[in-house]
Write a structure and sequence with these properties.
Number of helices: 5
Radius of gyration: 15 Å
CATH class: Alpha Beta
Order of helices and strands: EHEHEHEHEHE
Shape: globular
Number of strands: 6
Strand order of the largest sheet: 4-3-2-1-5-6
Number of domains: 1
Length: about 170
């Protein structure tokens, strides 16, 4: 397992929880992705350069993509660590999203798969592991269990938000 002592966990809503769903060209989705990119870059400027996600389709995957995009523009590029809850996490996703998921795995600094098979609590277990070894949580406010656990562990929580563009 990873030693995530000074990492930032990034988590939040999945596409199925967002009002625009899988429509990544929706103005609010584009704005949210930009807000993630900007905040991750700001955290890097403050010296925090290790980020961990579970790579779920939504905030975690978009944050991972932002981290990869930032790498080419920084002297000390951020490091991406993926803690996948189970081996078949992306199997049922659309082909293009499935491909993005595995491309992120290929470019990550480390990938750890928690379970070989899905279990009822594998996502919560991954969330707890990431947060137990992180200094903060960056979230959009989705995944209430993740945020509540971060609060219970007195983690610094920062919420990325956008002003609705409609």
């Amino acid at each position: 397992m990873l030693n995530l002592m000074y990492y930032c966990t990034i988590g939040g809503s999945t596409v199925w929880e967002l009002p625009y769903g899988q429509n990544e060209s929706h103005p609010d989705c584009v704005a949210l992705k930009l807000a993630l990119l900007e905040r991750i870059s700001e955290l890097c400027n403050k010296g925090l350069t290790d980020f961990v996600v579970n790579c779920e389709y939504g905030i975690p995957m978009w944050a991972a993509e932002a981290i990869v995009a930032i790498r080419g523009f920084r002297e000390n590029p951020p490091r991406l660590h993926i803690l996948a809850p189970h081996e078949n996490q992306a199997v049922k996703w659309h082909d293009d999203v499935h491909e993005r998921y595995y491309n992120l795995h290929a470019t990550a600094d480390s990938v750890t798969v928690l379970r070989t098979q899905y279990t009822d609590d594998c996502y919560q277990e991954a969330d707890r592991f990431m947060l137990n070894h992180s200094v903060m949580l960056l979230t959009d406010g989705g995944n209430e269990g993740l945020t509540e656990y971060a609060k219970s562990k007195n983690k610094y929580i920062e919420q990325v938000s956008i002003t609705t563009l409609r």
